[in-house]
Each structure stands twice: as structure tokens, then as C-alpha cells.
Amino acid sequence: MLVGSNADGEDLNQYWEQDNQAWWDWYVTLADNKDKATNFVDIAPIQHYDMPSDSELEDELSTPYRLTEDHHLAFRRDGFIRLPKVLSPAAVVRLRKELIRLLNKTFPENNRSNRFLSLEMMWIESPIIKQYVLSPRIAKISADLLSVKSVRLYHDNALSKEPGCGRTPWHYDDHHFPLETNDVVTAWMPAQPVPKAMGPLSFAKPINVFNLVKNIAFNKNDTSYDKRVTEVFKENNVAIDSKPFEIGEASFHHNLSFHTADSNKTSQSRIVLANTYFADGARVVKNPTMVSGDWQKFIPGVGPGGIAASELNPLCWPANIKKKDVEQ
Ligand SMILES: O=C(O)CCC(=O)C(=O)O
């Protein structure tokens, strides 16, 4: 899966040489997959909901979500939180329809089997996805959980775990995002319910368990890192939250939260919109590595050490989205 100098030796301190889909194709090979699914579980198709109109969607995605003190405490303690009803079922169905349209345009039917498909920066192309990505509702939850005044977008990401795709390796996002700050959060918003068999995002808790595994060497060529993290978490009886997601439920995780996801053993794609936001003012790290993939696509024109505030990193909270921007 690795090419050019990325394929040589063990060194991670180099730029990624392919596109971001190639990054995911490589990354999932680093997961330990003992139990390969052979029979897929058939799950019920999503119930019918009337699609929201553009203005209903805009209203929903600009309405603040009521976070409680318990939510804040749980996020600070555990590094992630699951929130019910972040999206209405109708908004989930509209999101799914648009993500499928975009995925279908990019990935031919005959080249999807067992893969982890990804698409980023969809908000530039799709006014519908733009509503979900620059959403004041989602960005305000993110800023509030981080306890920062303002957040910018790092990227949006469609994550389609296809039937038969194996586990997502254990990791924390600090390893991936080349941002010189820990004020980074990802809103992981499934575009359908995610039962256990589909591979819900799963979190190790509390947040500081990253200290148990921070000295494990990352190996770009095999599954040893993922295996060792699993072992260390087991040895230390680390609690893993791997509950299913209801329709409309979303999780928000900090960049120090260790997470994984099981394989997709169902016959449906596990489609998710994952938006990552970071505190305004953050800089790009001085030495991005190949584990950051093609990050310059997300922060164009800003080099190592520069402030991550390109035109593709708009301030999402406080909100500056205008109706006419959405309808362009
Ligand atoms: O969706 C997955 O399986 C992994 C996603 C992930 O690691 C993330 O959003 O940070």
C-alpha cells in the first residue's frame, strides 16, 4: 500500500506521497483482524422519514444543543461524549442521501468490497453537506466541549466502512492531525443507526489512558501497534465504550481520546460524516509526518509552523454562515 520513500524503512518523518483515499487503504491494513466476517448480518433498511426542506434543515442545524454540566464533566473526564438527538431522523436521512450521491460519483460499484472509503472537503462542492459542516449547532457543541471561544474547520470526512471492512486500528487523533494544539474535537455523525455488528466508534476511557500507550512504537508496516495497544488496555482493565448508535446520535471525541471501531459485519455500508474542528489561532506543527496524510489539502498555502487559518478553515463558531452562502 505504501509507495516511494513512504515504503522504505521505518521512518515516519516524511510527507505522505499519495492521496487521502490511499492513506485510508493503507491505514486499515494496520488493524489486527482475527475474526474475519464470512456471513453478513442483514439489518432492516432505514425507516422512511420525510426529507426536511432546505430551510427546515438550516433551522435545525443552527439551533443550539443544550449541553449540561454532566456532559461537560464527562467530556473532560473521558475525552468523548455520545449525545442523543444531535440530528433529527429526517436530517440523518437527508445526510445519508447526499453522502451516497457523492460516494457513488467517486467510487465505482465494483471497487468497494471490504474497503474503507473516504471523501473529504465535500462542503466545498455540496451546499447540503456545507450546512452540516459549517453548522452552528455542531460547531458550538465542539467549542463548548473544548471550552474555547471559537473553532475553525480542519476538515469534513465521509467515512464509509463497507460490508466486510475490518477494524479501524486503535489510535488517537493527535497522532494524525498536524495541529499544534490539544483543542481539537471530531464530531462523528452516523448517517444511519450503527448497531454493534456495523462497527460503532468505540472509546477507551478515561481520557488519560493515552499515557499507558504513548510509548508504544508506531509501525507503518504491520499490525503490531494496534495489537500492543489492545494488550496494554487489557492488562490494565481499561474500560471500552462500544455501544451502538441510535439514529441521530453523534459522538464528539477529543484528540487525546483513544478510539477504534469494529469491522462491519452487516450488508449495509456504515456511512458517517466526521467533522473536525480546532481552536482558532492554532498553528501547523513544525514537522508533520506521513501519518497526517495529504493534510495540505485541508490547510492549503500554510506551511509547518504557520497559523492554520486558510480559506478552507473557516470559523464555524461563532457562526458566520449566511443563508445565501448555503444556497450558492
Ligand atoms: O469511523 C471510523 O471507523 C474511524 C473514525 C475515526 O477514527 C475518527 O473519526 O477519528
Structural class: alpha+beta
Compute the gyration radius: what is it? 19 Å
Stretches with pLDDT under 50, minimum 5 residues: 323-328
The count of helical stretches stands at: 10
- Helix-strand string: HHHEHEHHHEEEEHHEEEEEH
How many structural domains? Answer: 1
Largest sheet, strands/sense/barrel: 7 strands, antiparallel
In CATH, the topology is named: Jelly Rolls
Describe the structure.
With 328 residues, this protein is an alpha+beta fold. It has helices at residues 20-27, 54-62, 69-78, 89-106, 122-125, 127-133, 136-146, 210-213, 224-235, 323-327; strands spanning 80-83, 116-120, 151-161, 168-171, 184-190, 201-205, 239-241, 250-254, 259-261, 270-279, 315-317. The longest helix has 18 residues, at 89-106. Strands 1, 2, 3, 5, 8, 10 and 11 form a seven-stranded antiparallel beta sheet that branches. A four-stranded antiparallel beta sheet has the order 4-9-6-7, covered by helices on one side. The N and C termini lie far apart (39 Å). The structure holds 2-oxoglutaric acid. Residues 159, 161, 168, 173, 186, 188, 201, 259, 261, 272, 274 line the site of 2-oxoglutaric acid.
